[in-house]
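Render this sequence as a predicted structure.
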Amino acid sequence: MSLLGLYENFPEVIHGRARFTSQNSVRDLQLAILSGVHHLNHEVHALDTIDPHLSHQCEVCFELGAAEDMVFNYFNQRELERFRTYIMKTELRTLDILCAIQYHTVNKKGKRVPLKFDYHLIRFTFRGNGGEILIHHERGTQRIPLEKLILFMANNINEDLARKSLQPLSIGKLQAL
């Protein structure tokens, strides 16, 4: 049996954590998270839009994948539809995401120069009208502070909730270790 949304080897060491509450149904929240993750796969952001204290000359691209047992599948339109169908039948208790963050800078000749990647494992857990976001920084330079990454993800989810005229996600206790 496939474990859609759950990565069996999620690390025990957690580097960042946030509690959240939501006035929406768990199903609506999960669909918004999936939609937000899908949209991030198609966007380029200036690093200073995630954290104003960071270099404005650096671009950030996300590659995100959703867990299924021991692997992560790139979160394209097909995966989004597969997860939506599954969630309409069964709410997830856990949603694990692989988040690879690519950084590029532009040199004096206008050429994009790749920098080292960051790799994070992100776990959303759901209980009642809330849950937690857990982050494990797998490897990389960690240019983006984990608190800023959590807030960026939450804002992205809230944008999707707003498009659907739903209540925003509220981030409570936030900490990075």
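Summary. The two ends are 35 Å apart (CA to CA). Helices lie at 26-40, 47-50, 77-89, 146-163.
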